[in-house]
Specification:
Largest sheet: 3 strands, antiparallel
Shape: globular
Strand content: 5-15%
Strand order of the largest sheet: 3-4-5
Number of domains: 2
Number of helices: 8
Distance between the termini: 31 Å
Length: about 325
C-alpha cells in the first residue's frame, strides 16, 4: 500500500488522481512492517505498529481486518470535495458511518496510523515530520498487481505468478498498465529492485493479445540482472468465446451467490486455458500442455543456477509463451 504523495515522478490513474510512483510502498507481514524503498528503507515490528516514538509502545494495530482495510483504501479517489464524496458511489456508506459512529477529525476516505518512522531519513522520506502515516490502496499509482515486495534484489525471488485483474480499459479489462507502472517504478528505484522488460505501452499489450493469454516475461534476462521470471495471467477478456463475466466495476461492492459462482467458473477457465489451440473440428480448446509449461517456468531459474539447459517439452513451451 502507498503513503502520502510528493510532487515528483507522478502518474495519473484512471480516476485522474495524481499519485507519485516515488511514494513509499509499504509491506506487512507477521513480524515487521515497512518499506525497502530507498526513500525510507526501514521496518518496525508489526506487533508495535502505531508506536509514535521510542518511549511509547502501541499495540493492537496488527489486527488482520485492519491491515486488510489499510491495503484497500481507495475511497480517497472520490474525495475532491465533500459534495463530490457524498454524491459518489460510496456516499451512502460514508453517510451511514457518520450516522452510526459520529466522530470529529477522523478521515473516512483513507487510513491513518501513528507514524513509527517519524524523524527517519529526513532528507528523503516524505512523511518524516508527520505525526500520522496516511495509507491508501497501493494500486493508486498504477501498480495494482503487488509486485514490489517480490522484486527486492536481496530476496532473490526466482519466479512470480502475476494475476492482473484491474479495470484498465473502458469495459473493465486489464491492459497491462500495472506492469508498465512497475517497470517505470523499478527504473526510478534501481538497484534496490529488479524487474524483467515488458512492453512500454498499453497499445503494445493489447495489439499482441498479451492480456488474453499467459505470457512469460524475463525468459532471456541474464542471471546478473537479478530479474525474476514473471508468469503473467491477466483478466483481459472472456475465455474461449464465453460471455464476459469477470469485468465488473471496482465500485460494485456486492454479488449474488450465482454471480460469485459464475466468477469462479470463468476465472478457472482463464487460469487453465493457456494459449487456446485449434481442435480437429476447428474450434479452440485449452492448450493440453499448459500445465507442463507452467511447471517449466516455475523451475526455470532454479535449473539455470544448477547449469541445466532447457530441454524437451520446455523448449517448445518457452517458444510459445515467452515475450521477446
Amino acid at each position: 500500500m502507498s503513503g502520502q504523495p510528493d510532487p515528483s515522478a507522478i502518474v495519473i490513474n484512471e480516476s485522474n488522481v495524481v499519485v507519485p510512483l516515488t511514494n513509499p510502498i509499504y509491506e506487512f507481514n507477521a513480524y515487521e512492517t515497512g518499506s525497502f524503498d530507498p526513500v525510507l528503507a526501514a521496518f518496525t515490528p508489526t506487533q508495535y505498529l502505531g508506536s509514535p516514538n521510542s518511549s511509547v509502545c502501541a499495540t493492537r494495530f496488527d489486527q488482520l481486518s485492519f491491515i486488510q482495510g489499510l491495503s484497500s483504501t481507495l475511497f480517497n479517489i472520490f474525495n475532491t470535495s465533500t459534495a463530490a464524496l457524498l454524491a459518489s458511489s460510496i456516499g451512502p456508506l460514508i453517510e451511514g458511518i457518520n450516522q452510526t459512529m459520529p466522530q470529529s477529525d477522523i478521515r473516512l476516505d483513507a487510513a491513518q496510523v501513528p507514524n513509527p518512522f517519524r524523524g527517519i531519513a529526513k532528507d528523503t522520506f516524505v512523511d518524516t515530520d508527520s505525526a500520522m502515516l496516511t495509507f491508501v490502496d497501493g494500486g493508486e499509482d498504477g501498480e495494482t498487481t503487488p509486485f514490489q515486495p517480490l522484486l527486492v534484489q536481496a530476496r532473490g525471488v526466482d519466479t512470480i505468478i502475476a494475476i492482473d485483474a484491474p479495470a484498465d480499459t473502458s469495459d473493465n479489462w486489464a491492459a497491462g498498465d500495472s506492469l508498465i507502472a512497475t517497470q517505470e517504478r523499478v527504473k526510478l528505484l534501481s538497484p534496490t529492485y529488479s524487474f524483467p522488460p515488458v512492453p512500454i505501452t498499453q497499445d503494445e499489450f493489447l495489439a499482441q493479445n498479451l492480456t488474453k493469454r499467459p505470457t512469460f516475461f524475463g525468459c532471456n534476462s541474464p542471471a546478473s540482472s537479478g530479474d525474476p521470471l514473471v508468469i503473467y495471467i491477466a483478466n483481459g477478456g472472456p475465455p474461449l468465446g464465453q460471455a464476459p463475466v469477470t469485468n465488473t466495476s471496482t465500485g460494485q461492492l456486492s454479488y449474488t451467490a450465482d454471480e460469485a459462482q459464475q466468477f469462479l467458473d470463468q476465472v478457472y477457465d482463464i487460469a487453465t486455458q493457456g494459449i487456446p489451440i485449434p481442435s480437429s473440428d476447428g474450434s479452440l480448446v485449452k492448450d493440453p500442455e499448459w500445465s507442463a509449461c507452467l511447471a517449466c517456468a516455475v523451475v526455470d531459474r532454479a535449473r539455470r543456477r544448477l547449469g541445466f539447459e532447457r530441454a524437451g517439452l520446455c523448449i517448445g513451451c518457452f517458444e510459445r509463451y515467452c515475450w521477446s
